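Researcher: Here's the sequence for the chain we discussed earlier.
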Amino acid sequence: MKIRNTHTLLLLLIWSQSGVAQNLGDPDCETLWLVSSYSTNAIKVFDGCSGDFIQNIEDNGWLRGPQAIVDDGQGGLLVVSEENGRLIRIDQATLTIDRVIAGDDPETTEVEIAPLDKPTGLAVSNDGRAFLGSFTQNQVIEIDPVNGDIVGTVISASQGIEGVDAGMWIQGNQLYVPGFDSSTIVAVNIAQNSAPQTLVSEGSNGLNAPRTILVDDQGDLLVSSWRGNQILAFERSSGNFKRVVASVSRPTGMVLESPGVLLVTSDQVNDVKRIRISDGAVIATPVPAGGGGIRGGTWITVIEKVDVPTESAAIDNHGFFLIGVGNIVERSISVDSMIYTTGGQWGVDLNPAEIGEQVWGTVLIEFTGCNQATITFVSDEPVFGSGEYEIVRLASSPLGDACEAIGFANVEDFLWMSGHWFGGADRSGEGFSIDVINGNQVIVTWYSYLPQALTMTQ
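Model: Thanks. This is the structure I predict for it:
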């Protein structure tokens, strides 16, 4: 059975456990930091102001050797998982795994082939094009960020680069690619599909094993030179060396926290430093060595907390239904497995192949009259709990009238159970549909709402 976590109850249950992004960390802080902990196969979440560790992103074991984490511009974060060749999407609002875009999907029985061996780098253009790089194949491809299809090859092997690393960067139409093994920086115009050009030649001005490239607020190309233990600045158009920005032990990932300020990770020190670009000074080390359990810190990104409270009013009344087939014993209905479905979409977006089922719990309906009963429920999901209450027939019906005419104690068949039932005025807006389908079996559908603990967290 294949279950997709796409705006379903199952996903909402995960949200309620891990917390949506805007509820994590200091409520007065508007950002979070995500750090790839390569050696522990984890993405670490830190408060974007204090640097305090908050949690790991739960990945169900899908990540192995996480590298680049890039905003897809569509409410998601794309993560490159090097050791298993996957490109994975994380929902930015919930910080939970959405799906595998490319590579083997553990939710299917098929074995999907990875588009590249040992992918590391990823960059997404302003118009949504995604470019994925391979460390071992020395290639960069364009990949569809939705379905994982290969669009084309941007850089082939033997085109001036070896060991494509995680920190690729797009500025305008130029894609900049670091070559760890070749100690070069290659640039290619993605609008013209032109041949790649070596912008910074091997070992230029101390460039040694570059890991990450970014363009700062002054327009300079900043590069983390891993073996050189430096951050270097180059002129973006010409590749001419400008200066040493800072000395850092084994720098890997970099991101602009604010104009003139870098956050820098190290896969050896496993910390996060705040560095002033103008003079290279380490302003602070908000995440100390090994903070949050970082081992092999290869990437850092800053994300804005997703502000969704304005949507909660519409979600507070989020409808939810359960369905199950039960057995009739005397004047009671027992349903051992009430289920809900997952993976659905409204209207034309509905894909039957993505619909899954999840067991919710049990329901017992004990009739005390032709038009009255007591319902008792026990859910497998703690947030729903257990309980019981009285229900009555929603509206008079010929079946109920016939039962009354014969007398509840005298009725011999069970057709009178069929109909629509609800919990009275105190439970207006929800109810039950009961359909007797043969002598002693019945379909029970329960229409209700999500608990407040879930509805407030989309």
